[in-house]
Amino acid sequence: MKKTCVHLMLLVVVFCLTTIVQNRAFSELDEGLGKSLKQDSVDVWEDFLNTLDRRGLSDPHWELESEDKEKLINYFKAKIAASVSEGLTSLPERLPSYVHRFPEGMLQTLKSHAENVLKVNPHNGAAAKFLAVEAFHKVNTQISSEKYPLLEKAMVLAPNDIEICFFAYAACTRLGDQTREEALVALERMLERLRGGDHKVSYLWTVRLYTSEVAATPVQIYLKINKKHPIIDRWEVVLTEILAVFENELLQTPDSGVFNIIAYIYEAVGDIAAAQAVFKNLKPFYEKRLAENPKDRTALTSLANIHNKLGNTDLAHEYSVKVNPTLAWEGQVLPEFSPVVDLDGKPVSLADYRGELVLLDFWATWCGPCIVEMPNVKAVYEKYRDQGFEIIGISLDTDEAALRKFIKENQLPWRQVFDGKRWEGPLAQQYGVRSIPAQFLIDREGRVISVKARGKRLNALVEAEIGDTID
After folding, report:
1. Is the pLDDT of residue 322 over 70?
2. Which tens digit of pLDDT belongs to each residue from 14-58?
3. Regarding predicted confidence, which is higher, 48 or 148?
4. Pair 104, 59: CB distance under 8 Å
5. Domain 340-466: which CATH number of 3.40.30.10, 3.30.750.80, 3.90.550.10, 3.40.190.10
6. Separation between Cα atoms, residue 233 and residue 397, nearest integer Å
7. CA 393, CA 406: separation in Å to the nearest integer?
8. Do the beta carbons of residue 100 and residue 137 sit within 8 Å?
9. Residues 209-219 as b or e (16 or more Cβ within 10 Å = b)
């Protein structure tokens, strides 16, 4: 009985000391901020978000004022001191989305503070969560094995926190295949914490598994796993639970994106009949959209995909061509250019290249994917140029000086056509080019092999046409 009383007294003392420390922290913050974070703490975080351009990350020169840095440091120290209540931290929910915009000095200050707090109190879930978010806000595969325990610790110490589970899953998808099992554990925990709660909340978290926040969706990971692997059954349980969330959402709010996710989950688990039934139900939705707007690219693309899934390949191609008219040229002899000249003022004609394998490359210096693709194009050109492979660049730039500078700096030796008219240029108009890069690979007889000859596919197609052997 005495031991019990002593134990209770110790608990009371600890509670009182904790309360005193927290109240003192809030009191000090009141002096620094001019208002009580305890009563209105969300304002500090909201003020921070409002300093960002549309709460986004578009301004690379954005800086936080010194006074605001101090406010945020004190704000997070108070949140970390509060630890966990009812299985949740009081850290702002959007922290993982914005922490990489914290000034480095401020971030390191908070990291050191959280580390010290966790040393004194290893059960402080807020400190653990902050350290986990800080460790993985810039994913580096080299630190995956040593830093993953931070995610694990945060999930355990904040047993009702859904966000940390989602963040852990997202981090694992970016760390690669070696963390598939950890990704599964994070996903299982997230779904368990959502179970039995508000459906809308479950849907909003689950649908984020299919956004750019993650490097791989649950279906994509599942499809990579050997079906004899011991964890495959657990992945199927997870997919079934995700499926139930989306099917429930579909009953309340019909949505084309949800239809698609459901169909792909059915496909992944091998229930093709169920997947096709979903696609058939989805088809009238897009047909109605297309009737209302015949240029609706989303409807056209979706109908192309649906008919492809249903085995209607001719209809699928018909819809695809409406989205991307260049597809109609595949397998056809490409008609001669409208009269054009290259940057040296010399006439360019397809007839001049008859008997050679030609890449007609529509691109621009302002096109990010084009610039990313350029080293690949250059490597293939250097590998096969002596075997009859040529390139004609069709620039959709408007600034000739910038184009010439790029060509010189990147040593692009092939001819370039430029007229400064972008999409209204005669060749883009003649061949129906609506997006770039658009890379037409044309055989020796002038027939189009592919209008999507880029990446590894470009090398494979050129190698197959020329008959060379892959190194």
Report:
1. yes
2. 333 333 333 333 333 333 332 333 334 447 777 777 766 554 554
3. 148
4. no
5. 3.40.30.10
6. 53
7. 13
8. yes
9. bbeeebbbbbb
List, in sequence order, every residue forming a beta bridge with 359; answer none if it has no partner. Answer: 391, 441
Look up residue 62 and give its two tokens.
């954005």
**CB burial string 11-41: b at 16+ within 10 A, e below:** eeeeeeeeeeeeeebbeebeeebeeebeeeb
Query: Which pLDDT score, from 0 to 100, does residue 265 have?
Result: 93
Q: What is the pLDDT of residues 348-396, one digit of tens each?
A: 988 888 899 999 999 999 998 999 999 999 999 999 999 999 999 999 9
Is the pLDDT reported for residue 4 higher than 50? Answer: no
| CA proximity to 168, closest of 205, 115, 201, 198 | 205
Domain ranges of the chain: 2-160, 245-329, 340-466
H helices present in 64-157, as ranges: 66-81, 95-98, 104-120, 125-136, 144-157
8 Å CB contact between 306 and 286: yes
Tell me, what's the pLDDT at 11? 35
Report the DSSP pairing between strands 357-363 and 438-442.
Answer: antiparallel
Q: What CATH code is assigned to 245-329?
A: 1.25.40
- Helix-strand-coil percent breakdown of the chain, rounded to 5? 65, 10, 25
Strand order in the sheet with 357-363: 415-418, 389-395, 357-363, 438-442, 448-450
